[in-house]
Amino acid sequence: MTVPVRSRRVGRRHVVAVAITCVGLAVAPFVLLPYPLGLLTLALAYGLFAFGLDLAWGRAGVVSIGHAAFFGLGAYGVAIAVDRDLPVLPVAAGAVAAAVLVAWLVGRAGLGPKAQASTMAVLTVALTLIAEQAARSLLGLTNGGNGLFVPGSGVVADYYRTAAAVVVVVVLVWLVVLRGALGRRFLAVRVNESRAAHLGIDPQQTKTLAFVLSAAVAATAGAVAAPVISLISPSSAGILMSTQVLVWLAVGGRGTIAGAFIGAALVTIGQQYLGDAIGSWYLLILGVAFILVVRFFPTGLVGGVLALVRRPLAEQAAQGAALETRRRPRSGSSPRDGAGPAGKAVELVGVVKGFGAVPVIQGVDLDVPTGQVLCLIGPNGAGKTTLLSIVGGDLAADEGRIRLLGHDVTAWAPHRRTRLGLGRLFQIPSVFLELTPRQNLLLAVAEARRVIELPAELRRFESQDSLRAQDLPLADRRALELAVVLAGGPDVVLLDEPAAGLSHEDSIRLARTLRAVAEEAGCTLVAVEHDMEIVRELADRVVVLANGRVLVDGSMDEVARHDEVRSAYLGAV
Amino acid sequence: MEAVVSFALAVLTLFGFYALLALGMGLIFGQLGVVNVAFGDFVMAGAFVMYGLEAVPFVPRVLIALVLGGALAWAIEKLLLRPLYVQGFLATLLAMWGVGIVLRQTADAVFGSTPASVASPVTGSISVLGVQYPTYRLVATTVSLVVVVAILFVVYRTDFGMRLRATIDNREMASLLGIPPRPMIMATFVFGTVLAVLAGALQAPMLGLTPHLGVAFLAPAFFAVLVGRPGSLAGPLFGAFVVALLSNSLRGLFSETTATLLFYAALIVLIAIRPQGLDWKRPQWTTALLARRPA
User: Fold this and answer.
1) Fewer CB within 10 Å of terminal CB in chain B, N or C?
2) Domains, chain A, ordered by start
3) Residue A549 forms beta bridges with which residues?
4) What does the alpha-carbon distance between residue B145 and residue B15 come to, in Å, rounded to a whole number?
């Protein structure tokens, strides 16, 4: 597939923005009095903290409501090093490493394939509570509630050091992570986790990485902020700080770099000027502001301003990720290299699956030779979709083995099966609704196993960049899903009622496209279909499923002649 | 012997407290799909109402706290949560966290952050199997347990409870059978919140009240819901018992910090092993039980 490269990883406007920011930061000490300059220093450090949280929350959709635990770790690292006359940099680096380790452990536990998002929320609250309590009670190390003093080195020196650290960290993370493959995967996992997995992206690994990076940046921010805050007390790691950083980011606008810094700056500066006058009422007002933002302006200040600026839709939809890539697909795996010894693409042995007490699949054995187009038919409740989900990896079989292209994939997650060469289409088309059709394809191509030429019918999506996939009519959305799956270069494609909801002409055309895909690319297709005309058009072989068992297996004509099938299925139509 | 009795009493008292929390949290999650991260702050709010209205006699004061908590919950569900359900779980979670911030900061602004205490309505202690135990603790525990039993009775033995379980199980089907979903959602949220307020109000004389008191209860309450077999109301109760037992044992053996650390470590391990978390709806517990038979 040829995709014209339109925007590069680093565009001219990015360079201009960084240059202006650097110049602005460099001249600030010449125009600001010491007190506002000190405030700006603090705001920058806090902004970095919010930027760290944004990597998890704004970019990858991993919520953390106890992020100050990591900030505190970094801040205490510096404070303890100063207190004990240890070299500051190595100790701070150790603190960041500790944050990475803790975040990795928590991420492994809380971001597993079956874990709910709520789990992370509670784990992170627990984390910040532990951190605060540890800081309060480990008197020998942290001096308890009195805290540790970290001397600064003068307002201007502190300012330049902080600004330099912030610029370096933000630019590095932006360049390497957000504009790279990871940023793209964060976006994919956040927008549609299931589709991301079926493109070959490991959702758990991606989210854990986001969380770990986020913790590392937060700990770095803590280390940078320590001399600016000057008194490091348990509250630096506690629930109040964790809450504040959420407020900064929500108010400023998550998912944007500017939002993190503007939110932190506004709230921090406001607190210095208003906090003395109205005390704890200031935080109360912030709480109310937070609720209002969540309820009425989920994109925050920067998001609100950006919505007013006229930008190409594709740019809005990309949300800062660089989707255009020139990369060649991973490892030049040549076509059909993974086919099994006997040329079996899919092999099911004694597959059993039940939901609670309800048996759905009651022992299915099925071989699909490479290149065959197999249609699964059967009455409602026969277990067709369940069987497809078991092959796709979305459901685990209770018993039996699943072999795919010569590998035993019974215990594999969907993304591993996808990387092996499986493509899956769902009954309700699963695409990245927030992105444009072209961006959907770009994501698929970026993760693709090999470059393939899309069927002419589907090539129109390659240039469709001015509307979001959610605005496509159903037939187009289904076609887009097919294009996305095919762009991944699969050897086996699973389709769940590809013609459902399509007009007669559309579905016949779709069947011909699929037929062409199978014949030209040598793809093995397994399709669940109800429309007998489509089945006749499409299938090499038809398998009738009834009550979770294979009833008949043969050509369309054989199946149509079969009495049991008539009574179980065709007669009921 | 005495050590065993006093340990058992301490576990029982903590169990009564966490049973109310776990039931309330489990109900709200099951019905609304909302992880109420402000749950602990409602406990704190209940306790601070007891502190703020010290002039009113104890029992009416508890009732006032319940009414205020219920009214607040009503307003939150109607004005804040209802428009956010469609935006998904993260939006409601953050909204509740916002509610938590406001509750904490209100308490901080009004009462300050120095620990406050509420006088116990009954003083003295009674002897239980040779152990002197504060009378009020026994009273509070008994009241909690009676409330828990009453809830179980309502949920499993009344018409209302049947509707409640029906909407939790399958809201769409229940509404097709004529059970209006909105009032049920509202009722569950208000009721669950009132349980947190009740727990706070009853516990108030045993606590040092600070505005940040409630956050510490969030993780244990969640833990309790998590431990129990998902899908049954008895699950969170079993979980609450485990939490009470674990928490008292750890505190008896280790320092405060180590105990907390070990407790949360257990929480992380549990979530790693049992990631389904607060899953209430999916496996019907009866069918899950049947499925366990060897096929």
Assistant:
1) N
2) 17-234 (no CATH), 344-572 (3.40.50.300)
3) A546
4) 9
* Per-position b or e across B146-161, b if 16+ CB within 10 A of its CB: ebbeebeeebeeeeeb
A356 touches chain B (CB under 8 A): yes
Identify whether the C-beta of residue A59 lies closer than 8 Å to the C-beta of residue A214.
no
Token pair in block for residue A406: 């010569």
DSSP state of A53: H
Work out the number of other CB atoms within 10 angstroms of the CB of residue A174. Answer: 18
Query: What is the spatial distance between Cα B58 and Cα B50, in angstroms, rounded to a whole number?
Result: 8
How far apart CA B227 and CA A506 sit, in angstroms, is 51
Q: Cα(A103)–Cα(A111) distance, rounded to whole angstroms?
A: 11
ipTM of model: 0.84
Chain A, chain B: beta-carbon pairs less than 8 Å apart: 150
- pLDDT tens for residues A325-337? 665 544 444 444 4
**Which residues in chain A have Cβ-Cβ distances shorter than 8 Å to B219?**
122, 125-126, 129
Return the C-alpha torsion angle B283, B284, B289, B294, nearest 10. -50
Which of B37, B79, B271 to probe by mutation at the A interface, max A CB count within 10 Å?
B271
Q: What is the mean pLDDT of residues B49-66?
A: 91
Q: How far is CA A203 from the centre of its chain?
A: 6
Q: Is the dihedral of CA A519, A520, A526, A530 positive or negative?
A: negative
Give one DSSP letter per residue of A54-83, joined into a string.
HIIIIIH----S-THHHHHHHHHHHHHHHH
| CA–CA dist A23, B12 (Å, integer) | 65
| Distinct helix (H) and strand (E) counts, chain B | 12, 2
**Total of domains in chain B:** 1
* pLDDT of amino acid B262: 87
Cα dihedral A561, A565, A567, A571 sign: negative
CB contact under 8 A, B261 and A134: yes
Residue A296 pLDDT > 50, yes or no? Answer: yes
A464 three-class SS:
coil
Tell me: the pLDDT tens digits for B109-125? 898 888 888 888 888 88
Does position B282 have pLDDT exceeding 70, yes or no?
no
Q: Is B249 part of a structural domain of the chain?
A: no
Domain that holds residue B203: 2-213
Query: Considering chain A, what is the average pLDDT of its residues?
Result: 86
Beta bridge partners of A526: A374, A494
Phi-psi region of A350 (alpha: psi -120 to 50; beta: other; left: phi over 0): left
Q: Which residue has the tokens 């088309």?
A: A429
- State the nearest Cα–Cα gap between A376 and chain B, in angstroms: 26
Is B223 contained in some domain?
Answer: no
Give domain status of residue B231, yes or no.
no
pLDDT the model gives residue B229: 57
Q: Is B279 inside any structural domain?
A: no
Residues above pLDDT 70, as percent of chain A: 94
As a whole number of angstroms, the distance between CA A480 and CA A474 comes to 10
Alpha helices in A343-464 (DSSP H): 384-392, 414-420, 437-446
Q: Which chain A residue is nearest to residue B113, measuring alpha carbons?
A: A280
CA distance B44 to B203: 10
Q: Is B53 exposed, middle or buried (0-12, 13-18, 19+ CB in 10 A)?
A: middle
Q: What 8-state DSSP symbol labels residue B143?
A: H
Q: How far apart are the C-alpha atoms of A141 and B19, rounded to whole Å?
A: 37
DSSP for residue A177: I
Nearest 5°: the CA angle A355, A358, A359 is: 90
H/E stretch holding B59 reads helix B58-75
Q: Is A36 helix (H, G, I), strand (E, B) or coil?
A: helix
